[in-house]
């Protein structure tokens, strides 16, 4: 560390006498480069000073995002990123050939890069979990209309029973037999069951097409498709399209699934 860098540290740490401080500030006023060096050193020290990283349980215990970050940092990927930061710090500060200010700048750039990678990994890791957990939380097939009440056809009654017992492949065959998706005489209830069954079988793209047919059908239940489309996009981890569908629902409190759509929209 040269004399100028030592002066900068003394100035920032408040260890100068009033006379020394006045002389140093006069020197800064006459030297724009020194002003930049002082600003850079101050910013880097503030960002990477350990005392600024303290987060107490009082502020984080109730915050689900912080809980998620903590879980990630404790995971193998999070630990790997933490080790990368420690190794970077150790390498730069053991390099005695580099001046103090330049070390801080190089260290800052390296840490920024590590954090950029880390947050990208975290986003990929966390968004997938959030989307699927929200899908599992909000899907509720118990409120589907009973096909037995609407149609005494024993085959549809059997299909509904298979659906309720999660025998989706067998149920889908019966639904498609009674309501081909290309048919002009649409039964919206069967379309709902068909799309949801396809969704449960991970036939997500096909489910989207089925719900789109329901949406554009000239039936009273057509608008219900927006909720199922939102859930489908959520399962596919397409949050933006899911929110587009939810926005259509929450535009009016009179829309089907309004409250659920509002809660889910606010969770995304």
Strand and helix layout:
Layout: H1 3-12, H2 18-29, H3 32-48, H4 57-60, H5 64-74, H6 76-93, H7 100-138, H8 147-150, H9 154-164, H10 168-178, H11 188-200, H12 204-215, H13 225-235, H14 239-250, H15 258-267
**Structural class of the secondary structure composition?**
mainly alpha
Order of helices and strands: HHHHHHHHHHHHHHH
Distance between the termini: 49 Å
The average pLDDT value, as a whole number, equals 77
The CATH architecture designation of the largest domain is Alpha Horseshoe
The proportion of residues forming helix, as a percent range, comes to over 70%
- What composes the largest sheet? none
Beta fraction: under 5%
Estimate the global geometry from the Cα principal axes: elongated
Which fold name corresponds to the CATH topology of the largest domain? Answer: Serine Threonine Protein Phosphatase 5, Tetratricopeptide repeat
Number of strands: 0
How many structural domains? 3
Q: Could you tell me the radius of gyration in angstroms?
A: 30 Å
CATH superfamily of the largest domain: Tetratricopeptide repeat domain
Please tally the helical runs, counting DSSP H or I stretches of 4 or more residues: 15
Which CATH class of the largest domain applies here? Mainly Alpha
């Amino acid at each position: 560390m040269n004399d100028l860098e030592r002066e900068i540290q003394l100035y920032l740490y408040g260890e100068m006498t009033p006379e020394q401080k006045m002389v140093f500030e006069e020197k800064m006023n006459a030297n724009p480069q020194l002003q930049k060096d002082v600003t850079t050193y101050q910013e880097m020290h503030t960002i990477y000073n350990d005392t600024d990283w303290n987060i107490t349980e009082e502020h984080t215990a109730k915050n689900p995002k912080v809980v998620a970050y903590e879980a990630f940092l404790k995971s193998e990927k999070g630990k790997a990123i933490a080790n990368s930061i420690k190794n970077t710090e150790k390498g730069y500060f053991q390099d005695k050939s580099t001046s103090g200010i330049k070390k801080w700048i190089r260290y800052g750039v390296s840490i920024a890069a590590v954090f950029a990678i880390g947050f990208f990994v975290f986003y990929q890791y966390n968004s997938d979990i959030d989307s699927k957990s929200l899908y599992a939380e909000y899907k509720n097939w118990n409120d589907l209309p009973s096909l037995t009440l609407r149609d005494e056809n024993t085959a549809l009654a059997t299909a509904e029973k298979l659906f309720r017992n999660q025998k989706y492949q067998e149920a889908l065959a019966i639904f498609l037999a009674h309501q081909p998706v290309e048919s002009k005489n649409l039964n919206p209830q069967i379309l709902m069951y068909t799309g949801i069954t396809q969704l449960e079988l991970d036939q997500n793209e096909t489910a989207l097409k089925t719900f789109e047919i329901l949406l554009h059908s000239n039936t009273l239940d057509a608008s219900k498709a927006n909720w199922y489309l939102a859930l489908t996009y959520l399962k596919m981890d397409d949050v933006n399209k899911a929110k587009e569908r939810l926005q259509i629902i929450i535009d009016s409190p009179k829309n089907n699934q309004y409250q659920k759509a509002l809660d889910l929209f606010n969770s995304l």
